[in-house]
Every structure is written in C-alpha cells, then in structure tokens.
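Newbie here. two chains, one complex. Structure please?
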Amino acid sequence: MIPYLSLDFPFKIPINTDYIDTVVRNFSIKYDLFFNSIRSFLNSFVNIIHFILNRTPWFVLVLAVFILGWRLGGKISKGILYAFLLFLIGTIGLWGLMNETLSIVIASVIISLVLGFPLGILISSSDKADTIIRPILDTMQTMPVFVYLIPALLFFGLGKPPAVIATTIYAIVPMIRLTNHGIRQIDKEVVEASISFGSTKLQSLIKVQIPQALPTIMTGVNQTIMMAMAMVVTTSMIGATGLGMEVLIAVNRIEIGRGLVSGTAVVIIAIILDRVTQGLAQRSEVNHNAEQ
Amino acid sequence: MKDIKKITGTVIIVLLVITIFAGCSPKSKKEITFANAGWDSNMFHNAVAGLIVKEIYGYDWREIPGTTPVTHEGLLKGEIDVHMEIWTDNIPTYMADIKEDKLKELGINFDDNYQGFYVPRYVIEGDESRGIEASAPDLKYVWDLKKYAEVFPDYEDPDMGRVYGAIPGWEVDTIMHNKYLHYGLDENFVYFRPGSDPALSAAITDAYERGEPIVAYYWEPTWLIGKYDFVLLEDEPFDENTYLEGKTTLPTVKVAVGVSNDFAESAPKGLLEFLSKYKTSSALTSEALAHMQDENANYEETAKWFLKTNDNLIDEWLTPDEAQIIRDFLK
C-alpha cells in the first residue's frame, strides 16, 4: 500500500473556477463602456490601415518591395525576387485576403512598437521594473493562446479587435526584451563619458544609448513582426478574416491544396517582411559602425 | 559520515525505483480509444459507452481529443477505435468513405436534432424579470431578420447587422451562407464566421448574459441550448432537393456511431453488437448535459446517473446477462 500512497498528494486544494468565470463575466459587463471604446478604437485603426492598403494600387506595393529589397538587400536580384513573390500572391487571387491579414498585422506591430519601446527603456533603466516585468513577459509568451483568447472575446467581441489584442500580447515581448537588452549591453564607460561631457540623462539616452542599441532594437522590431505573422492563423479562430481564415477553412475540410496555397502566401509575406526589416537592422549597424 | 550519506542516497534511490515500478503494476493491454471531437455531448456518450465496455468486457478506455476532421482521420487510420458521435453532414467525404469501406458505421446514436439560426427568447418576447423589452417582436421566420438589421448591429460595420454563421469548414457553414444569400440578408447583414466552436459559444453566452440581442447558428443537443432559452427561427419546410441551397429548413443530422476497420475485426462480437444498438436521442442527451451543468458533475458521474434514470436503455442495448452486470454495478 505504501508505494501507492506515495504517488498521491496528501491533500488537494479545491479551486473554484466557476467563481473566476463569474467574476470575469461581471467585470466585462460592468466596464462595458471602457472596453467598447477600446474596441471601436482598434476597429477603426485596423479599418484605416485596411482602407489605405486597399486603395494602394498593386504595382505601387510591388515596386516598393522591389526597391526596398534591392536597396536593403544590396543586390538587384533580391529586389526582383521579392517583387515577383509578392506579384505571385496577387496572381493566385489572394491579394484582398492579404490586405486584410496585413492590416491586422500592421496594427498589432504599430501598437507593439509604441508600447514596447518605452517599456523596454523603462526596464533597462530600473532593475526593480525589470524583476517585476520579466515574469509577466514570460507569461505572455508561454500562456496557451486560447486561455486568454476566450476572455478577450467577452471583453471585445469576436473579430478584428480581439485579434489585434491577442497578436499584440504575443508580439510585443521581443520588442520589450531586445530594447532592454540593447540598452543594457552598452559599455558603462560610454554612458559615463556622455554624462561627464555634460549631457543630461535624457540627452544621453536619446543621443548616445538608443543609437548605440539600435541594431538590437531593430532585431526586436523584426522579431515582433515575425511573431505577429505567426498569430495570423490562430486569430482566425476568433473570427479574424484574411489568409488565416482561408487556412482554417482548408484545414477544417482537409483540403490540402487550398491550405497549402494560402499557407504559402503567409510564408511569402513573412519572408518579405523579415528580409526588409533585417535589411534595416543591418543598415543601422553599418551606419553605426561608420560613425564610429 | 560519507558512508551514511551514501547509504541514505542508495536507500532513497531504491525506494524511488520501487515506487515507480509499483505504480506501473501490470495492466491489461485491452484499451479502447474514443474520439473526442471537442463538444460535451460527445464526451458524455464516450463516458456512457466507456462505462459499459469497461464493466462488461474489461476494456480500459481513453479519449483522443481533436477536431471533427482530425478525429475522422484518426478513425480512418485506426488510431481511434470508436467515434460515438459522427456528425455525418459535417464531414464532406463521409458518404464516400463509407462506400469505399474506410470505416464501419455501426448505428445511429440519434437523429432528432435541430440546427439553424437561433435567437434568445427575450429578443422576441422580452423578459420582464430581467427588464428586457422585446426588440424584434415579429421575428419568427429566418426572412423576418431583414426587418431587424439594426437590432443585431455589427460593430465592425455599424450600418449593417451581424448574423453569426457556422464554424468555417463545416459543411453546414456553406448551407447557412447560401441561406443568408437566398433571403437577401446580404443587403443589410454581415455573415460573420466565428472561427471556432468555443468562440461562437462564448459570443452567444456573453450576449445572453448581458441580455443583448444576437442571432447565431447553433445546434442541438448542446448544453448551451439546454441551459439558455433560445428560439430556433423557422424556415420553409424541409425539401431534400433544395435545402443545400439554403431554401428550406435543415434536415436533422444523422449522428452515427462508427468504428475503425481494425477495431471492427478485432473487437468481440458482443461489443460491436452493443455499439450498433447504442441509441439515445437529442432530448435525452440535452437532459443529461443540463443535469451535468446543474450538478457540476463530471462525465463519469453523469453517465451513471443517466443509466440509472433511463433504465430501459440498458435492456435495449444489452443482453439480459450483460444488463444484470451493469445494474449490479450501478447499485
């Protein structure tokens, strides 16, 4: 008997999950107005981006990708390749869906950068903030998405606003981490030198520390975009339309071909965004080295 | 001192090893895997069948969770032995798979279920106790929705109404979308695909708890329809030739009990016999699910309660000897 007993815990704490349900629900009803205003803000934000993307003629976007790929990649062949891949998305009839997906991704990335950058600076300058925020970041990255996706539904309804929120929760983390990391890794002497030459803390931050940390920060931007792209299919499960929904439908019907086509479109967009932002990151590194 | 440490260490390790091995006492390898396609009635029927199979044939049972297509594939591959609730209309390839003998359909679990567009009763009749006024008093048929777009606003596009469709990829989603087009709802409604069942049920329960109007596709038997007071919007009478185009009421879906080919060959005859006789109804299932929700019971407890309450089913499903075993167990 003893070996069997040793496998069981001596007692169990009953957790009343129903109570948590009720609290969350009541909370969402009580602060309805607050959540509604966030919802309509996010909704119009996504809609504006979508509107702009939809009004942009396809060749402008293809041309922009060509130029960016060329200038940032250093070779004209890269520009041609990326432009061709983007062109391909249009020719297989997924341009409209791509715009829908991109508008959610872009909105989430902008919010991630706007919130993540100052937060990263904050925790780089304060160890206390760092110890508090670090476990929160770990939670945001590892908590299974559906656990907070369903509460997000109660607060923000189904559709694009909760999709933006879920994506931001996931994608903001590298922005914060790498901004923090980039600023912390700067030599102490450099910062001290700038202070001793009479610059204030703020001046030192803006003119010395941030430029020094820029390559790392740009890597953070790149990672944020990649993470946002990774959430495209997941957010379709709460009603976000676009390429993710197309993949979801295909998967639910075991239509392998259809899934592969739309999945490939997601990959193409991710590759282009990745190469362009990586190019920007390297560029900031090159400039930075040249200045030195 | 060192020796003592060594000895203690060895003793601890030996104890641990004994404990672990004792935990893995030889088990019978007889095990049945049930498909768990993700909704509660499926898990409930697994528990009922599992109980009987365990008590009579000594099989252990476990569930393999997945979505409708994933569990179906598992059944075709033989990784899943038994699927207690195959919603045949939701699997586009089902009829072909049966024809090509890729799985065995043993019987019909129930086929008296409803599905379609539901609205909470308070939308039509109001609810004095909650202080809700009827916002669409003349809503009875699906086509009446057209008059009430502003009652069900779509916040992404405030000029339009929102009707929640079915889960993308389900066969019925196509039919519901056709219905939406057929009745011209596309003029002032957005057909919103909720993405997944949890998302859809969360949207519905949330609206209900707030007392807000909502119109959404849903189906029975589910705890949601059992727990809340919903009204199914009526439609033209069912017509086999045009329902796919969304012109009529949906037929009741045949919810079948199926097994994999491997299992059909290897399982005892009596067990297969039992599974092919396994038949409940939508009403019985909803009742059990509502009981479970009210009592906060788990599936096993609900299964026992269900068999005790519906004693006649035991005789219908099992031979007299087998029935006696189950009755003794339930005592």
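Moderator note: Residues 115-245 of chain B form a domain with the D-Maltodextrin-Binding Protein; domain 2 fold (CATH 3.40.190.100). DSSP finds 14 helices and ten strands in chain B. Thread marked as resolved.
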